[in-house]
Amino acid sequence: MTTTDLTLRDGDLDGFFRVPFEIYPADSPYVTPMRADLERYLDPTRNPLMRDDGGRLTALTAWRDGRPVGRLTAHTHPSSNARHGLRRCQFGYFDCEDRVETARSLFDAAETFARAQGCDELVGAFNLTAMQQAGVLTDGFENQPYTDMIWGAPHLPRLLQACGYSPIFPMSTFEFDVGPKTAEALLGDKQRAVLSDPDWTWTPISRSAFKARFEEARQCLNDGFSDNPMFVPLTPSEFDFQAGEMMWIVDPRIACVVHYRGEPAGVVICIPDLNPFQKATRGRIGPMTLIHFIQERLRRRRAVIIFYSVKRALHGRGLNGAMLHHVTKALFTSGYRQCGVTWIADQNTASLRQMEKLNARRLQRLSLFRKDLR
């Protein structure tokens, strides 16, 4: 496919991976996924989104003058469409030079793909689902993202609007300082009652018991998030695909599953921020990879809360605040000094109140962008 001197390639993993390194300055906040992970995500024989759920995927790369200058995925999520009554195609991994014709060429191809799948809208960004990286950055471009947060250049929202896309579903990511008294701000009567009641037990997510704890985490996530917009319950294979490699980087001091009378009740998945390591390696495994990993492990001061969830039957008991208190206290005693929190929708007032109690600051503003294809 060619537009003037612009050529589109489908399935060109090398070019797809290279795009951000070609178009963004070396000192930009952009952090690449590891190349091996990107290959895994985009492989329909390995990713359960395509392999098990029947999703269809195209991965487009725009080339100009021998350089990859834009990229975009378009994909379907059949379980999401069935659950929410949609005929939606999703886009993701949108990175592009600041030229409208390049963005338009990518989106024209994505929209053709979407219509061929019987979809009537194209919405994103999802890399590749709502339980992974989501959103297009609209503010906070100068801030360094944490693991599982998106960064994109300031011109991307403008390119999207030029291609007919409108912002919907605003979100924020957050960052808070971890100090000696940070955790205390989360405590009220309900939280103190949970922490002092022996019916509630706190189990770290250690490597030795990782599989058992992560299956409990999946159960808590699926139950607690069941009523959330865009959420689709994760199967064991999907959860393992997305989070299984955390076993090698989990810090058991700062992640836990809470049991109530012996049954899993809530979970906080908090991990060390891996972005400094990934930025140092430029997303590739090489001779210096292990050295970079050890260096970052020795000097890590940043962590990130990927998600926290309480089963619906236990909502209103104060467990969310008690869990965040437990983890925030552990962060401080373990030497962490900043903690990020992945995206929270503007409509999620309960989680936003927790951010206020932590005196968290907005790190980024994001939105989904949508175009009606009818």
Model description:
This is GNAT family N-acetyltransferase. There is one protein chain. By secondary structure, this protein is an alpha+beta fold. The chain folds into two domains: 2-172, Aminopeptidase, CATH 3.40.630.30; 179-336, Gcn5-related N-acetyltransferase (GNAT) (Aminopeptidase, 3-Layer(aba) Sandwich), CATH 3.40.630.30. It contains 13 helices and 16 strands. Strands 1, 2, 3, 4, 5, 6, 9, 10, 11, 12, 13, 14, 15 and 16 form a 14-stranded mixed beta sheet that branches. A hairpin with a 2-residue loop joins strand 1 (2-3) and strand 2. The protein is globular and about 65 Å long. The two termini are 24 Å apart. The model has no long low-confidence stretch (mean pLDDT 95).
Measure the end-to-end span: 24 Å
Task: State the CATH architecture of the largest domain.
Answer: 3-Layer(aba) Sandwich
Q: Please identify the top-level CATH class of the largest domain.
A: Alpha Beta
Number of DSSP helices? Answer: 13
Task: Work out the radius of gyration.
Answer: 21 Å
* Shape field: globular
Total of domains: 2
Q: Helices and strands: which structural class?
A: alpha+beta
- What does the average pLDDT come to? 95
The CATH topology of the largest domain turns out to be: Aminopeptidase
Q: What is the element string, with H for helices and E for strands?
A: EEHHHEEHEHEEEEHEHEHHEEHHEHEHE
Q: Largest beta sheet, briefly?
A: 14 strands, mixed
What is the tally of beta strands? Answer: 16
What is the share of helical residues?
A: 25-40%
Query: What percent of residues are in strands?
Result: 25-35%
Query: Going by CATH, what is the homologous superfamily of the largest domain?
Result: Gcn5-related N-acetyltransferase (GNAT)
Residue stretches low in confidence (pLDDT < 50, at least 5 long) are none
Protein name: GNAT family N-acetyltransferase
Organism: Brevundimonas nasdae
